[in-house]
Amino acid sequence: MAATNSSVTEFILLGLTDQPGLQILLFFLFLGFYTVAMVGNLGLVTLIGLNSSLHTPMYFFLFNLSLIDFCYSTTIIPKMLKSFVSKQNIIMHAGCMTQLFFFCFFVISESFLLSAMACDRYVAICKPLVYMVTMSPQVCLLLLLGVYVMGFSGAMAHTGSIASLTFCGKNLVNHFMCDILPLLELSCNSTYVNELVVFIVVSIGIGMPIVTIFISYALILSSILHIHSTEGRSKAFSTCGSHIIVVSLFYGSAAFVYLKPPSILPLDQGKVSSLFYTIVVPMLNPLIYSLRNKDVKVALRKTLARKIFS
């Protein structure tokens, strides 16, 4: 259904390129990325679920991170793959708003989940004696509830703002998905209020978690500097290494797209940046956490051994 104040009932997603030779290459490239992301994230979810040794607060949050990464990759990539093999990638107005809602929900949820993981690392390193008491199952569930409430609130704000726009005929979305900025470009009425909503929600969705992460890591760094043994410092740094890499990749690419005015960041350049945090980051996250994590590698070996012997 189209919005009551809009004459547009469907949108055409222009995708990444209109060159046939390049489209086939990109189809197989992103199909490979999606396969790796699916196998990696669902594999990590399964591994954590099957191994009681990984039933700790850190892996509880990692379980949800993998679940979110899988979901928002699935929200975007299948529709994008269709654009490489069809003449016109059409999406209905209601479908476009639905995709936008779930995309915003999962991305904002991931942003706040990464800040919750930073708090978990702070307690683990700075207050190890009370770690299991402080990060009790009840506390972890409350943190996770807060993560999804913020995700839902942000997604409702973005989707409601875009759904209120009037589209008078232009329906070519210069993107591979229904993203906020390309849809704002199509509006035939003033988008000042909508752009203000985007800036406020994105500032909260990125700003609050980043401040939390910076404070957590400042306290962690201060604590690490008071550790006298080199081995102890190395162990503390390795505990945070994977999380720091994931945070840098996610926030760096997201902030580059949404915290710059469209006049500074052209939409074509924004599409390339969007690829990074919608496709590459969800693919890399399970690889980063599994290849750099001793507990995950040990659990994987035990699980494979059980399957082989059974």
Folded structure, characterized:
It comes from Equus przewalskii (Przewalski's horse). Putative odorant or sperm cell receptor. The chain crosses the membrane at residues 24-47, 59-78, 90-108, 129-151, 196-224, 236-259, 274-291. The structure is a single chain. The protein is mainly alpha-helical and 310 residues long. It is 76% helix and 3% strand. The chain has helices at residues 20-50, 57-85, 93-126, 131-134, 137-163, 180-186, 192-225, 230-258, 267-291, 294-309, and strands at 10-13, 89-92, 172-173. Strands 2-1-3 form a three-stranded mixed sheet. Helix 1 (20-50) runs antiparallel to helix 2 and helix 3 runs antiparallel to helix 8. The longest helix is centred in the middle third of the chain and has 34 residues, at 93-126. The mean pLDDT is 85.
Reading the helices and strands in chain order gives EHHEHHHEHHHHH
Strand content: under 5%
The percentage helix is: over 70%
The pLDDT mean sits at 85
The biggest sheet amounts to: 3 strands, mixed
Which structural traits does this protein have?
single chain; 310 residues; mainly alpha; three-stranded mixed sheet; 10 helices; Olfactory receptor; GPCR_Rhodpsn; transmembrane helix; GPCR_Rhodpsn_7TM
